[in-house]
Amino acid sequence: MTQIHTLDTRGRSNVIGRIAAFLYGIAAYVVFLVTFLYAIGFVEDLVVPKTIDGGTEATTMQALIVNLVLMSIFAIQHSVMARPQFKQWWTKLVPPSVERTTYVLLASLALALLIWQWRPMSTVVWQIADPHIAMVVTGLSFVGWLIVLTSTFLINHFELFGLHQVANNLTGRSMAAPRFRTPLYYHFVRHPIYLGFIIAFWAAPTMTAGHLLFAAVTTAYIIVGIQLEERDLIEIFGDQYRSYKRRVAMLVPWRRSP
Predict the structure, then answer these.
(1) Domain membership flag for residue 256
(2) Does residue 255 sit within a domain?
(3) For burial by CB atoms within 10 Å, which of 40, 125, 142, 235 has the most?
(4) pLDDT of residue 5 exceeding 90
């Protein structure tokens, strides 16, 4: 009788743990979604109260240091936690089912910190005077955001942001082995998500020094991040990814890959 009671207690505890993990995944996704949508307004200097060119001014040196520190925090968190070696260590501390969810949550919080503490640098580097051309450039920036979002759905949006993992854990199903797929945009560039971000960051009708710093540093981080990510992809998919890398450009469509 005691043994049956113990097994029943463990079973209920396991179910509660799975439900808690699922709710945690939902909460982390909501945090991500709110932060991502806010980030669009932040970069575009539209709608939201705190934007890349708004807020309390600081001296140029103070703004430069603070902004570089903020972007470094985001880049380090993003890169270190994405590496397989870190994941192997990290999943000894957190359940594998919420590893991706935790990554997404911490990345969202790092981005929220950047937005909150960003120091504007309002010196204008360039400005498009013609309102029609300025509107076209702004539209191009939103095309970049659209590429980012649609690219995530092409490769499984819900797995990328941890919902698939916690849903499978809730129902007791295991995650399928990763499959190498190249849908739509991936026929033309290997990293359409990163390409979308680059377009969104650089297509600005008014480019201030702060916006330029943000665009330049994030682009440099993207280039470095691609090298790390592709090393991991080669370890997973081997010659299949090497062949893809030879055939398809990294970021510029139809440009022969190096």
Answers:
(1) no
(2) no
(3) 40
(4) no
| 160 part of a folded domain | yes
pTM across the whole model: 0.91
Residue-wise pLDDT for 188-219, tens only, equals 999 999 999 999 999 999 999 999 999 999 99
Structural domain total, the chain: 1
Residue 69 falls inside a structural domain: yes
| Residue 205 CB neighbour total at 10 angstroms | 19
- pLDDT of res. 6: 42
First to last CA, the chain: 68
